[in-house]
Automatic annotation (TrEMBL):
WD repeats lie at residues 6-38. Its main location: nucleus. The lineage of its organism: Eukaryota, Fungi, Dikarya, Ascomycota, Pezizomycotina. This is Uncharacterized protein. One of its GO terms (molecular function) is structural molecule activity. One of its GO terms (biological process) is protein transport. Belongs to the WD repeat SEC13 family. GO terms for cellular component: nuclear pore outer ring; Seh1-associated complex. Keywords: mRNA transport, Nuclear pore complex, Nucleus, Protein transport, Repeat, Translocation, Transport, WD repeat. It is found in: Nucleus, Nuclear pore complex. The keyword Transport applies.
Length: 349
């Protein structure tokens, strides 16, 4: 299908995100504005809402699952504010996410780092069984904070459940790169469950500078005001050190039917590495196996992502190409297709 969406932003579009069904699209631009488009039955995309979301450029966007009511969009701005935007379906188009005056919307929830280091990446995961939502935020000082929302009907309250250091604080003036992603699967892989990992354990992959760290959560007993309760605590499961440069992006594959989990990361050195991690016996013992090292791009690579089934891996970079990879019968990943944006001058009618 030929899709050319006229987004209407007056500046560069920095972030794009689709909802679960692919019929809603959110865009964020460098000027801090966000727009939401709806796909109609005639396959056309029409503007639903637009508002000023951040004081700086919008770095990342993510829709929460469609099963969560109301519809929620999470965003992160260059100024370090993480914000959740709730839709009011009864409002008129143009005011559904933006309830403030003058196009300045009021978020349902927002937070920023209490330190001098702003947040640079986030990931949101919703547990359908527990109805809890989790937010992971990584800041420029190398610390990762995990928030939890225990009441599904109250999106305005999140509390911190863990805060840990991923890497040493970068030096002043040093180029930094941080990305964080939750395991999108409902449960850990079969190998992890067989080894004794609980079904509600969370998986987290964090790219910090030139390395990638995989964290797993475990339930620990904590005492507050004389009352013992169970809380989640993250521990380092495995560390990946295969990249020679800054890691620009990471992705965790959905569909962990393989019995093990699959993740991919890329560095500015134009190499995409797909790694497979297996859970072995023991409390924190993990093993990592690199299954492919892909070098189809000849320019720096900036984004990597799996499809909804975890069968196709896509990467894109400065060359403007979208390269797709598939797993072969031998287990390795190989290039399967390539999409190129072609600029053509429109002829006068």
């Amino acid at each position: 299908m030929d899709l050319n969406l006229q987004h209407g932003h007056k500046d560069l579009v920095q972030a794009v995100s689709f909802n679960t069904y692919g019929d809603r699209c959110a865009t964020g631009s460098v000027d801090g504005k966000m727009r939401v488009f709806n796909r109609h039955r005639d396959a056309t995309w029409r503007l639903c809402d637009t508002w000023s979301a951040h004081g700086g450029e919008v770095l990342e966007l993510q829709w929460l699952p469609a099963s969560v009511y109301p519809n929620l969009i999470a965003s992160l701005g260059m100024e370090g504010w993480f914000r959740l935007w709730a839709e009011d379906p009864s409002a008129a188009p143009g005011r559904r996410f933006c309830s403030g005056r003058g196009g300045n919307g009021r978020p349902a929830f927002d937070t920023r780092s209490g330190r001098a280091a702003p947040y640079r990446s986030f990931s949101v995961k919703h547990g359908h069984d527990s109805a809890n939502s989790y937010v992971a935020l990584v800041a420029t000082d190398g610390r990762c904070t995990v928030l939890e929302n225990e009441a599904a009907d109250n999106v305005a309250e999140y509390s911190s459940i863990d805060d840990f250091s991923v890497c040493a604080k970068p030096s002043r003036g040093e180029e930094v790169s941080f990305r964080v992603r939750f395991d999108p699967n409902a449960e850990p892989c079969y190998a992890a469950l067989k080894a004794g990992v609980s079904t509600d354990a969370l998986g987290l992959v964090v790219a910090a500078m030139d390395r990638v760290c995989v964290y797993r959560s475990r339930n620990v007993l904590a005492s507050a005001y004389g009352v013992s309760q169970t809380k989640k605590e993250f521990y380092l499961a495995v560390e990946v050190r295969v990249h020679r440069g800054l890691v620009r992006d990471v992705a965790w594959a959905p569909g962990n039917f393989r019995g093990s989990t699959l993740s991919a990361s890329l560095a500015k050195s134009t190499v995409t590495a797909a790694a497979q991690q297996d859970r072995q016996a023991g409390q924190v013992k993990h093993t990592l196996r690199e299954i492919s090292r892909l070098d189809s791009h000849r320019t720096p690579v900036w984004r990597v992502s799996f499809d909804d089934d975890g069968q196709v891996l896509g990467s894109t970079g400065d060359d403007g190409r979208l390269v797709c990879y598939r797993q072969t019968a031998g287990g390795e990943w190989a290039k399967s297709s390539e999409l190129v944006m072609v600029k053509a001058r429109m002829a006068a009618p």
